[in-house]
Amino acid sequence: MSRSTRRAGRAVGTGRAWGIAAWTAAAAIPLAFLAVFFLLPVLSLIATGFTTEGRFDASGIPAVLGEPRTWSVVGQTLAQAALGTLLSLVLGVPAAFVLYRLRFRGRAALRGLMTVPFVLPTVVVGVAFESVFGEGGPLAALGLDRTLLVVVLALAFFNVTVVARTVGGFWSQLDPRPEQAARMLGAGPARVWWTVTLPQIAPALASAASLVFLFCATSFGIVLILGGRSLSNVETEIYRLTVQFLDLRSAAVLSLLQFALVAAVLVVSARLRRRREQTVSLRPTAERIRRSHAPAIAVLAATVLLLHLLPMIALLVGSLRGRTDGADGAAEWTLQNYTNLFVPPADSPIDGSVADALATSLGIAALAATIALLLGGLVALVASRRPRSRVLARGIEWFDGAIMLPLGVSAVTLGFGLLLTMNRPLGIGLDLRTSTVLIPIAQALVALPIVVRTLLPVLRGIDPRQRDAAAMLGAGPLRVLGTIDLPLLGRSAGLAAGFALAASLGEFGATSFLVRPDTQTLPVVIAQLIGRQGSDSYGTALAGAVVLGAITAGIMLLAERWRGEAAAEW
User: Facing residues of 55 across strands?
Assistant: First the structure.
């Protein structure tokens, strides 16, 4: 063997070793972050609930499962999730058809606007629906305040977008010729839908339903604000048990129940997503609007006007109304509530101003989004690989599933667990609870799954033969990564950044445990202020919710504008 051949062989071996080391690090960094700041706090909280005087004690399981309220809360959780999923599907499928199968001017802008409801902070949406159905609201006479119907409507407010994007993105790629052939053979629109279209989009419908059920079952802010104790779900019950009663044993049992439920949903969702990816034919199509499309267009219009715009308009109107000094207590148009954002009213229960909380929220959310983007990019790069080895392929599936775990655990459990464990994490003599560093960490964990699901479809869409061809031409793994994967990843980075920033800005569950009196975030401040109806503090909460909602909507509209052709995978 010649010297040059040996030198080339050593170079190839060195490049392969560096490639293996790089991919190992790319997988290890997110897993280490997840282990320290997610698994350790959650498992520690659960262990605390099952430990008595330093010994394992499982007596809490039969005790908690034997309480009637436990099963009442579980039943309410399942009922809210099932009804929210059903309503989201009924309203989301017509939206998917109009936005992804019809061709009309302004379609891209309308798609971007439909994304906004999903990322609005739960506190904002809760206050908005309270402005519609609560005391003094335009629909207060219906007597629906604090009812299951209002909770389900608020859940659908978020999740219609999930259905529209998941089903619509799949629908737009299907071959239209089977439908055209059915129509040519004399089948009416209804028969074409039931016999041709519905079986084709069934994988996407099932995938969307599983995700929406997951989001509804783990809702915290909506149920806390609109449902109260009478409509508690597992998430709010964990919060009540930990905050009000310090009953860690019962909270730990409920956390395990919730984790088992959500783990099952995540497994089903992953299988349905793979089936959806295998079924898609990648034949983009769009058709002109016809008279037969009027019902779908009407449903979308009603959804936008009544479900999305009405609560936001009621919130805005409420923020512009204030009490007069007259004896009748009548309200008048005023900007005083917005002035109170900078100069707190006398009855304000918070330290500092709402404007200070907004500045704190923006800074923390920017840091959290940066962490989520960096980790999410590494996860997407690793999870998009398609190794020939079955062992590696199965390992990547487990890796992808592990990153989704924060979706399956209560944000309340995460926040309280961080408080329990971060006084001396891993034996390091540093109490992280005395600073605000845990808040962006918790928010990044919440945003990470959304970032991954946004970036991953772009990388999975790359033809493996492109990478193989580059490798055959002598490009090493890192060069293949830099010339093929990273340029495409950058196309969806804007959308991922928008989702991460919006999700972090509105995070409420875990943050409510981690904030300090002098560094409160805006969602936490709004939640404190809305408990004072009839006072200046309540009007200030409405104004703060409007500002937070407007900022979040602006972030997502900019992200949609920068996203190129990327499409989020919910």
Answer: 52
Q: What is the domain partition of the chain in residue ranges?
A: 71-311
Residue 434 has pLDDT above 80, yes or no: no
Q: How far apart are CA 46 and CA 413, in angstroms?
A: 9
Tokens 């170079």 belong to which residue? 11
- H or E element in which residue 400 lies: helix 390-403
Instruction: Specify whether the backbone of 50 is left (phi greater than 0), alpha (psi in -120 to 50) or beta.
Output: alpha
CA distance 88 to 159: 6
Question: Of 524, 506, 362, 383, which is closest to residue 446 (Cα–Cα)?
Answer: 506
Backbone angles phi, psi at 19, to 5 degrees: -65, -45
pLDDT per residue as tens digits for the range 391-405: 888 888 888 878 888
pLDDT at 326: 44
- DSSP-based three-state secondary structure for 467: helix
Which DSSP helix (H) or strand (E) runs through 81?
helix 68-101
* Alpha carbon 9 to its chain's center: 48
Written out in words, the top-level CATH class of the domain with range 71-311 is mainly alpha
Residues 6 or more apart in contact with residue 510 via CB below 8 angstroms: 411, 412, 414, 415, 418, 442, 443, 445, 446
The residues with which 331 forms a beta bridge, in sequence order, are 323
Say which residue the tokens 């891209």 belong to. Answer: 108
Q: For strand 287-288 and strand 102-103, is the pairing parallel, antiparallel, or unpaired?
A: parallel
Q: Write out pLDDT tens, residues 177-217.
A: 777 787 787 777 778 778 888 888 888 888 889 889 988 98
